[in-house]
Automatic annotation (TrEMBL):
Protein name: DUF3809 domain-containing protein
Pfam families: DUF3809 (PF12723)
Domain of life: Bacteria
Lineage: Bacteria, Thermotogati, Deinococcota, Deinococci, Thermales
Organism field: Thermus thermamylovorans
UniProt xrefs under InterPro entries: DUF3809
Length: 122
């Protein structure tokens, strides 16, 4: 399952979003911080490489986010259209796999809420 986000990088910190995004050379790097009553603060890093206007996900050790999409320059900054998926270590038992699916559903719900709030520049 994937979620979609649209953000604009313009040198200002995100306002009201649990998301850090920055451009470092040809890479977009970031971190999603999500509070969970059961797990405390969950920190999910991501990286993607710019190839022209295309963002290609770079692998990180799980847990992390797999982020790919497009980056287009605009007057306001660099507009990012992202597809985001959660990467977890493989579950060994049915319980671990079920817990992973629950975490994925919770994250996607949080990303959908974030997507509605991310219309403001980041």
């Amino acid at each position: 399952m994937k979620a979609r986000l649209r953000l604009t990088l313009n040198g200002h910190a995100p306002q009201g979003l649990p998301l850090e995004v920055r451009l470092e050379g040809p890479e977009v790097r970031g971190l999603l911080r999500q509070e969970s009553p059961a797990l405390g603060e969950v920190r999910l890093p991501f990286r993607a490489r710019l190839e022209g206007e295309r963002l290609v996900a770079l692998p990180l050790p799980p847990p992390c986010l797999w982020v790919e999409g497009w980056a287009r320059p605009t007057r306001e900054g660099l507009e990012l259209e992202l597809e985001v998926a959660l990467v977890l270590p493989p579950g060994q038992s049915w319980g671990e796999r079920a817990f992973g699916r629950i975490l994925e559903a919770l994250l996607l719900r949080a990303l959908e809420a974030l997507s509605h709030r991310s219309r403001s520049p980041v």
